[in-house]
C-alpha cells in the first residue's frame, strides 16, 4: 500500500545538459515541449497509483517539483468518468486544511480536492504560479469535468480563488472563506459564490457587506469562531448549494429526488431555528434557491408574516446599527494609531484598546462582545510592521493563541 504521508514525486529524468548545449534554441524548445508532454502522460498513468478515500499530504507537480499540493480522491474515483474539482488556497500555504474541511462533502458528491502547499499571502506572483502548476497537474493526472472546476480559499487565499475565477472565466464557482475580492467589489458575477465567516472573524464585516451588495447568485453563512476555514458541516452545505446552482444552470442534470431531500432538510433546519430574524433570513435563502423548482409559497407567506413582526423589524434595524458601530470603532482605533505615530499620546490609544479588551472578554456571548473581538483583531492584523515595544505589548494582549485552522 502506498504511504499517503510521503511526498509523491514525478518520475526521474536523467540530465541531458551535454546534448542540450549543442542544440539550436528552436530545436531545444520543441524537444522540451515533447518532454513535458511525456511527463504529463506519465503523471496521468501515475495517478492510478494514488490512494483513494484518504488524504495525501503532498503531491509534487510533474512540470515543477518545487510545487506541491495536498490531495483527496473520492474512494470510488475512476478515470472512466469526469469529476468535479475544488482547487483550494490557504493564506498560510496550509493546503491540507481545506482538503480536510471539504473531504466529507467531496466523498459524498464526487469531488476531487487539491490544496496548494505553496500559495500564501504575499506577492501575487507566488500564488498565481502555484495555482497554475497545481491546476495543470490535476488536469493532467485525473479525469476532470472542465465545466465543473471550482476554486476555494481562506483569507488571502480567498482573494486568490476569486482572482483566478475573475481572470480565467473558466471557473464554475468560488468558495470564499473570510475574504472576498482581490481588488474592487463587483456586484454581479458570471459564477456563484459561497461565502463564510466566523462570528469573531475580523473580516466578518467584509463578508456581511458582500452578502448585502452582491446581486448575482451567492450565499454567505456564518459559524461560531474566528478567522478560519469553515467547519466540515458548513462545507457540506456549501457543496450542496453549489450542486444546486449547477442544476439550475444546466451544468449537471436535475436530480428530482435529491432536490426534494435538500428542500425537506432545509425546511427542517428552518423550523429548528430559535430566532425570528435568523428564520427570516433562512426563509429568504430557501425561496431564492428553490423558487421554480419546488413549491415555496408557504415559505413566502411565512416570511411575509415575519417581516411584519416588531421584534424582527427591531432586529434588522439593530443589525444596521451594529454595522455602523463596528465601522466607527475601526476608524476610531485607526485614527488614534495615526495620531500616536505622528507624536500623539499613546495613553489615549491604550485606554481605548483596554476598554475593548474588557468587553471582548465578557463571560456572556453578545453582539457587543463579538464586535469588540472583531475590531481588536482587525486592529492587530492591520498593525504589521510596527515595532515599537509598548505598541507590541498592546498587540500581545489582543492577539489570540496561534491562528486557527
Which descriptors would you attach to this protein?
nine-stranded mixed β-sheet; alpha/beta; 14 helices; 14% strand; 405 residues; 9 strands; 2 domains; disordered C terminus; disordered N terminus; Rossmann fold
Side-by-side strand order of the widest sheet: 1-2-3-5-4-6-7-8-9
The percentage of residues in β strands lies in 5-15%
Q: How many strand segments?
A: 9
| CATH hierarchy: architecture of the largest domain | 3-Layer(aba) Sandwich
Helix and strand composition category: alpha/beta
The CATH superfamily name of the largest domain is Alpha/Beta hydrolase fold, catalytic domain
Order of helices and strands: EHHEEEHEHEHEEHEHHHHHHHH
The shape, in one word, is globular
Sketch the major β-sheet. Answer: 9 strands, mixed
CATH fold description of the largest domain: Rossmann fold
Helix content: 40-55%
In angstroms, what separates the terminal alpha carbons? 29 Å
Top-tier CATH class of the largest domain: Alpha Beta
The overall pLDDT, averaged over residues, is 90
Q: Which segments are poorly predicted (pLDDT under 50) over 5 or more consecutive residues?
A: 1-6, 11-23, 401-405
In DSSP terms (H or I, runs of 4 or more residues), the helix count works out at 14
Number of domains: 2
What's the Cα radius of gyration?
24 Å
Amino acid at each position: 500500500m502506498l504511504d499517503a504521508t510521503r511526498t509523491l514525486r514525478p518520475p526521474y529524468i536523467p540530465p541531458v545538459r551535454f546534448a542540450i548545449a549543442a542544440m539550436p534554441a528552436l530545436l531545444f524548445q520543441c524537444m522540451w515541449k515533447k518532454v513535458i508532454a511525456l511527463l504529463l502522460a506519465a503523471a496521468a498513468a501515475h495517478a492510478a497509483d494514488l490512494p483513494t478515500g484518504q488524504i495525501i499530504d503532498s503531491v509534487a507537480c510533474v512540470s515543477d517539483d518545487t510545487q506541491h499540493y495536498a490531495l483527496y480522491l473520492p474512494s470510488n474515483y475512476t478515470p472512466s468518468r469526469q469529476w468535479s474539482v475544488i482547487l483550494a488556497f490557504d493564506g498560510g500555504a496550509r493546503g491540507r486544511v481545506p482538503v480536510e474541511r471539504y473531504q466529507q462533502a467531496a466523498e459524498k458528491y464526487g469531488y476531487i480536492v487539491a490544496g496548494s502547499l505553496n500559495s500564501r499571502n504575499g506577492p501575487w506572483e507566488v500564488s498565481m504560479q502555484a495555482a497554475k502548476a497545481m491546476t495543470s497537474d490535476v488536469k493532467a493526472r485525473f479525469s476532470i469535468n472542465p465545466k465543473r472546476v471550482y476554486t476555494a480559499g481562506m483569507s488571502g487565499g480567498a482573494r486568490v480563488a476569486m482572482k483566478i475565477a475573475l481572470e480565467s472565466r473558466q471557473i464554475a464557482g468560488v468558495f470564499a472563506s473570510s475574504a472576498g475580492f482581490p481588488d474592487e467589489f463587483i456586484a454581479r458575477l458570471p459564477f456563484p459564490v459561497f461565502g463564510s465567516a466566523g462570528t469573531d472573524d475580523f473580516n466578518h464585516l467584509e463578508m456581511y457587506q458582500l452578502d448585502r451588495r452582491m446581486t448575482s447568485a451567492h450565499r454567505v453563512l456564518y459559524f461560531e469562531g474566528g478567522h478560519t476555514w469553515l467547519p466540515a458541516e458548513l462545507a457540506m452545505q456549501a457543496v450542496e448549494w453549489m450542486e444546486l446552482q449547477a442544476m439550475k444552470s444546466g451544468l449537471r442534470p436535475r436530480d428530482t429526488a435529491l432536490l426534494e431531500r435538500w428542500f425537506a432538510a432545509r425546511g427542517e433546519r428552518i423550523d429548528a431555528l430559535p430566532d425570528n430574524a435568523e428564520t427570516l433570513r433562512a426563509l429568504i435563502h430557501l425561496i431564492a434557491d428553490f423558487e421554480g423548482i419546488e413549491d415555496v409559497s408557504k415559505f413566502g407567506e411565512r416570511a411575509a408574516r415575519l417581516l411584519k413582526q416588531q421584534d424582527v423589524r427591531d432586529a434588522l434595524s439593530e443589525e444596521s446599527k451594529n454595522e455602523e458601530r463596528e465601522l466607527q470603532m475601526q476608524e476610531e482605533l485607526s485614527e488614534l494609531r495615526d495620531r500616536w505615530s505622528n507624536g500623539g499620546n499613546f495613553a489615549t490609544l491604550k485606554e481605548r484598546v483596554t476598554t475593548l479588551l474588557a468587553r471582548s472578554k465578557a463571560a456572556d456571548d453578545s453582539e457587543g462582545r463579538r464586535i469588540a473581538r472583531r475590531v481588536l483583531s482587525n486592529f492587530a492584523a492591520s498593525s504589521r510592521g510596527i515595532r515599537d515595544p509598548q505598541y507590541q505589548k498592546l498587540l500581545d494582549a489582543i492577539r489570540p493563541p496561534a491562528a486557527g485552522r
